[in-house]
Amino acid sequence: MNDGYNVAVVGATGAVGTKLIEMLEQTNLPLKNVKLLASKRSAGRKLLFKGEGLFVEELVPESFDDIDIAIFSAGGSISQKFAPEAVKRGAVVVDNTSQFRMVDDVPLVVPEVNKEALKKHQGIIANPNCSTIQMMVALEPIKKLAGIGRVIVSTYQAVSGAGAKAIEEVKQQSREILDGKLPEDLTTGILPVASDKKHYPLAFNALAQIDEFADKDYTKEEWKMVNETKKIMEDDQIKVSATCVRIPVITGHSESIYIETEKEVSVADLRACLEDAPGVVLEDDPSQQIYPQAMNSVGKKDTFVGRIRQDLDVTNGYHMWVVSDNLLKGAAWNSVQIAESLHELDLVKI
Amino acid sequence: MNDGYNVAVVGATGAVGTKLIEMLEQTNLPLKNVKLLASKRSAGRKLLFKGEGLFVEELVPESFDDIDIAIFSAGGSISQKFAPEAVKRGAVVVDNTSQFRMVDDVPLVVPEVNKEALKKHQGIIANPNCSTIQMMVALEPIKKLAGIGRVIVSTYQAVSGAGAKAIEEVKQQSREILDGKLPEDLTTGILPVASDKKHYPLAFNALAQIDEFADKDYTKEEWKMVNETKKIMEDDQIKVSATCVRIPVITGHSESIYIETEKEVSVADLRACLEDAPGVVLEDDPSQQIYPQAMNSVGKKDTFVGRIRQDLDVTNGYHMWVVSDNLLKGAAWNSVQIAESLHELDLVKI
């Protein structure tokens, strides 16, 4: 028995960071102290944790001297620099960025799917991409029931995945359009990808680009869904292709997913297995117009699944609509669940 | 040679009707007179046609006495009642509603694809569903090049497809959300389907329901894409499944389309054949972040195709992103093109 963990949140003032604090307030993980870390610019700010004011401290290597679990969500370059420092000082790192996800000895974990992979950790555990996580939660029970040979996914992703500035930008653009501004006069500069050459309006638009373009004209976001799925499901044979699209929703990713199973099953079988699956809420009653909605997912930890239908021609093909809060299950909640799993499996040395 | 057609627009004051008037201003079809028809409520209003004020007249059976071509866009029940009246009085009807689309001797026409089907018309020609039309324009050249065995489509459809009141509703909801109203306090009543039991907010949301639910838990909109594709392409063997989703875009439908061709081709071959295809504008240069966008399609008659990629596992599988103005190519422009084709093929008796 330990008397609780010292947990650090790196990037505490960001869009995901503030959700991490909320999730730590709700976790069953025994906590001794919570330390909030951010850049020098944000240091000195006071944030509430369980009703108590905590000062945000500047992130330095020594920040991790007394830390058991460090949850990172401050961008890839910060993780690259400071995660090894945290490990060196004895912390286990749960990293929300893409920095270490595809590194061989770094477990990439969705607790409902591959919690056991944590046992091989070498200090760093990666939290998968938001759009991958919710797909994994929905597909794992189906994989257990019938095997999955193939996945084709088209996403409808929310803007909060691109950070707080992107949210402000799309709100600003929305106001401008409602006030009658022309498309060419809208404020742009962040979306679709802050670091990329061109920027386009997202308000009342749909942008088929998330992250930069990469190999074979797929974007990095699309490659994440492909490669992370294979790693998390520990199955290199599973066929995955993705089209990732940003739409003007603040929070809540939606996904239109087509799967081909190895074994033919009925839609009733699929519904039954999803109804019992961890982390899944089945919302699938067309007669009552019940189906998952991004807006309804906000603030909830579950992944919502509905619109389950058999393909009209392929007998082992199925379509579904999968929705989750991208800041919670897609990021903060999955990270805290990983910390809970580390505790449950006794994988953090104190 | 004739000295021009007398053309009636039924539903002249609606979202599509006003676009029909614009398209008739731009058409090469020889016009003698244009008659604007609508419900009693709208009769007496004056609309501009080529700078001239035209009075909207009340729709009655006798409205068609001197009409050669009548373009209907006033809802299925109006078409059901008045299209046969127009035909009886010697007019050829181009119907924008779903009323006659699947009737055997009614040609369902996208001029770039199956103009020849007009030759068998018995007085009524149906304009396909907006989401089907743009898909057909993009797929026909590929079908000619390599054959198409299978289509899986997920749509990102604009709200103007649901009419002028739906546009106002989503604008109102957007303002309310930007002003801080909670989801449960938003104004609803029209979307997703005015005639259905429940109504949900669409602003900053995505609704996986367009039209009512029907057979096998697919919506009527999804069935339209399936059945109309088979009819237009004159191929009952083509496998089509659809997931239709409304997103907060005012005008411009986007579609994530996966196809399997009969013959394996390269992405370069696909781009080349689309570049030369009628009604298609290829916008596909990832290195310059060039891909179709709903916002850019507004007011244009073309169908924009981009994000063309080979599937990562299936060698005859391809993904693409297809965008078009749902009020123009998806409705008004396709209807006027049908009228132009009727003239070209000399299929209207004067």
Automatic annotation (TrEMBL), chains A, B:
Active-site residue list: 130 (acyl-thioester intermediate), 253 (proton acceptor)
The protein's enzyme class: oxidoreductase
Keywords: Amino-acid biosynthesis, Diaminopimelate biosynthesis, Lysine biosynthesis, Methionine biosynthesis, NADP, Oxidoreductase, Threonine biosynthesis
Domain of life: Bacteria
Binding site for phosphate: 101
Residue span(s) of domain Semialdehyde dehydrogenase NAD-binding: 6-121
InterPro entries assigned: Asp-semialdehyde_DH_CS, Asp_semialdehyde_DH, Asp_semialdehyde_DH_beta, NAD(P)-bd_dom_sf, Semialdehyde_DH_NAD-bd, Semialdhyde_DH_dimer_dom
Pfam families with a match to the protein in the record: Semialdhyde_dh (PF01118), Semialdhyde_dhC (PF02774)
Full protein name: Aspartate-semialdehyde dehydrogenase
Encoding gene (name): asd
